[in-house]
Each structure stands twice: as structure tokens, then as C-alpha cells.
């Protein structure tokens, strides 16, 4: 049922954005951005339940909470970077969208550095 509401919101916002684009492109962009933000908030509740479920599974599997937190941070950075880049692309700013994507990739590498370091140490101890 939730997906039906999200699709309906997306379709209504798309129709409004397309109709407004000819007359007032600024308002069209605002409609698109507002729809994106509303959709993002609509998925926050199911997302928090999923994170709790994954956290419980990670604890049962014996995965350290530090590593689990890093993985969640990386996933969050990836989704937010994609969302921001799409908003920039919708506004016609493809160059800025590419920079947002690049920043997201760099931040993912920075966030994953502790995991990569631990993996390298593990490999070095095996050799």
C-alpha cells in the first residue's frame, strides 16, 4: 500500500512539474524537489525498521557494531549523493550533479577506510 501512495505522489508531482515547466520553470523545480523530499520522508519509517532488523541480524552473526555502523553510513552516503545528484540533474545542472556524485564516492572511500585498513591488517597477519 505504501508503494501505491509513493507512485501516486510521484505521478501527480510529475504531471504538475511538466505542466508548470513551460510557464514557470522555477516552480516546476520546486514541485519536483518537494515531491522528492516527501517521498524520502515516506520511506523513513520502513527504513528504520529495516535498519533495526539488520542490526539485530548483525549482532547475532557476531559482526562488530563499529563495522555495521560504517556499512550503514556508506549506504546512507550513497543514497543521499544519488538523491542530491538527481535533484541537480532535474534542474539542468549536470555538471554540479557529477560533482555531487564525485563527492559521494570520495566520502564513501573515506568512511570505508577503517574497514579497508582492518582487512589489510588481517591479510598481512595471514601471510
UniProtKB/TrEMBL annotation:
Keywords from UniProt, A to Z, are: Membrane, Transmembrane, Transmembrane helix
Xref: Pfam families = SpoIIIAC
Q: Does the keyword Cell wall biogenesis/degradation apply?
A: no
Residues spanning the membrane: 31-54, 61-82, 102-123
Q: Per its UniProt record, what NCBIfam families does this chain match?
A: spore_III_AD
Which protein, by its recorded name, is this? Stage III sporulation protein AC/AD protein family protein
Q: To which species is this protein native?
A: Anaerotignum neopropionicum
Amino acid at each position: 500500500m505504501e508503494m501505491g501512495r509513493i507512485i501516486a505522489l510521484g505521478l501527480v508531482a510529475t504531471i504538475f512539474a511538466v505542466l508548470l515547466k513551460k510557464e514557470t520553470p522555477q516552480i516546476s523545480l520546486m514541485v519536483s524537489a518537494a515531491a522528492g523530499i516527501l517521498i524520502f520522508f515516506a520511506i523513513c519509517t520502513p527504513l528504520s525498521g529495516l535498519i533495526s532488523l539488520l542490526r539485530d541480524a548483525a549482532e547475532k552473526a557476531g559482526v562488530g557494531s563499529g563495522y555495521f555502523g560504517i556499512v550503514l553510513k556508506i549506504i546512507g552516503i550513497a543514497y543521499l549523493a544519488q538523491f542530491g545528484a538527481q535533484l541537480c540533474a532535474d534542474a539542468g545542472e549536470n555538471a554540479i550533479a557529477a560533482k555531487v556524485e564525485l563527492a559521494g564516492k570520495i566520502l564513501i572511500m573515506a568512511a570505508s577506510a577503517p574497514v579497508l585498513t582492518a582487512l589489510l591488517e588481517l591479510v598481512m597477519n595471514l601471510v
